[in-house]
Structure formats: C-alpha cells, structure tokens
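YM 10:42: BTB domain-containing protein sequence, as discussed on the call
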Amino acid sequence: MDKSPKVYAEEDLYALLRPLTNKKGMTLRSSIESPSCDVRIITSGGSTIPAHSSVLGSVSTVLEKILDRPRKHQYADKIVPILGVPCDSVFAFVRCLYSSRCTDEEMNKYGIHLLALSHVYRVPKLKQRCSKGLIKELTIENVIDVLQLTKLCDVPDLYVKCMKLVSENFKAVEATEGWKFLQDHDPSLELEILKFMDEAESRQKRMSKKIEERSLYLELSEAMECLEHIFTEGCTSVGPCDVEVTKNKEPCKKFCTCQGLQVLIRHFVQCKKRVNGGCSRCKRMWQLLQLHSSVCDNSHLCRVPLCRDFKLRREDPTKKGEHDGRWKLLVKKVVAAKVMSSLSLPMRKEATNVDTVKARR
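YM 10:58: structure's back
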C-alpha cells in the first residue's frame, strides 16, 4: 500500500527554530511572529514543506535565484522542487537553513543527504558541518558511498579521511557491497583508490627510511662528541695521557655510546691485524676518526688522534679524489644532525623540568 504524500505544517518547522536573522546577522522577530509562509517546497514523494522566501534567499544564492524567477500568477505561492532525496531529509535541510545548526541526530540520520543538498544549493556552513559530522560517522560499510559523494561534492577533508580508512582496512572494505558496486560502475574511482594505497605505502617506506637515517646520523653525531670527551676529559677506562682515568669515575651522560667507543679504542690500540688491514673493527674505528676530523672545527687544538693529519690529507691537492660525493654527503648529514640536536636540547630540558615540577606536585 502506497503512502500518501506528507504535508508539513508551519508548526512542524517552527518547533526547533532559533530567532531569524538578516544578512548582517541582526536578530529579527522570531519565525513564529514572521509573515506567513510564501514558499512551498515539493519533495520527491509529493510532500509539501512551507517556508519563507526571505529566509531561504538569505542563506542560499541558488535558492534566491530560483525564487526570483517570474511566476504565472503574481500572488501565487512560490514553488521550489527539491527532488532526489527522501522528504524527511529535505525537511531536515530546511530546518538547518532556518536554525543555522544541525543536531547530531539529524547528522546521523540524514548526513549524506544534507551534504549533497548543501553542495547543490551552496550553503557553505552546513556543508562544512556535514563534512565534520560524516568524518565521525564513517564506517567500513558506508565509506565507499561517502567517498563517491565527496568526489561529486568537492569535500577534500572528507575525501582524504575516506581514502585513509579504505587504505587501512582494505580487506574489510573489499568484502562490502559498496566495493562490489564500485567495481561494476566506477572503475576510475577504484583505480584512484588503488593508486592512493600504493602512494601511501611508498610514503610510509620513505618515512621509515628517513627515520632510520636520521637515527643513524644522530648516533654518529653523538659518537663524535664522545670521541672529544674521551680524549679531552677521559671516561671510565680510556682517556688522554695527562689525565688519570679510574674505574671509580662516574659514567658520563652518554655512557652507552662512550662505553662502546672505549671498547673499540682499546681494541684498535692492541690489534695486530690492523697493520695488514684485515680487521673490520679497526676499519670502523679508522672511519670514525676520519669522520671526526671532517666535522671538527678546531683541528689545531683538537686532542682526538689523527684529527690534524686527516685534515692536512684532505687539503692535499694530490689526494682530492679520495673523498667522493657520498662521504661529503655523510659529513653534511652528521653536521646537520649535530645542529638539530643542539637546538632541541633546550626544549628537552624545559620538558624535563616541567615533568619534574608536576611530579613534585
């Protein structure tokens, strides 16, 4: 049995309305006291919704143009057909135009339709509200439907959220009816989703690689500082000739790195394979000393072994080819990591002090 068209009374619309405002935002009389409705909105089901042309025209330029069209009879009500969506969604849309707000319940029930209507009739604030509301309502089941709508309605924020949800839960999305419909009727969007997923995976790999590289450069930068510390002040077991080193000495702040370097230095001094170049640990120590010389700003006074010798060797025109582009890039990255570490140190200290104060409270 077919349902008869629903006719909305003015009281249905007034129940949830705020006081009317004009284009300048000044509050007018309440909508109940305003002139009688002079517009009839017709929905797909043949239902009628009464409204005021002054309100509709003030919030939507599209509706304003529709209402300004000439009529056959001057005193006849203006008719605005809003078709293609359920009549309750149209009524919720009209209520939002009057009250300038949209409840969570309305967003939950009619969010997709409200987004489409706000785009078609150019209601920016409602469109923005719908975009934020639909982001909260996104699920595996409705994400494809919302994604298709974002392409039609030009909602970039919602589009990105949909793409990320599909990318992160692709196996679950692939089993939905929406995805099957997409494969049959919109292969271009399917290809766009697959490209987005491939780019997202590539970005993740690049980011992971950059994080690993940054961590390596920070470790090398810290090792350079520890070399200066060991050969200038001395640490727990290794130090310069004129400084007495005892095991009772308290560990430094970067003891983990210092300890590894001290073990490497002791091996470097005692190793017999080093002469023939057959020891990988000695090669590593040699490279660290060479790297230190490349980043050191004060080779004349530096107490790290071979620092000045490496410096002079680099300046020798007959041996310019020994340092290729990769080595220069490594030096540049280590120096940059040292600068970034020194800049972030005050922030780390401040954060530590704040945590200490909170802990005392």
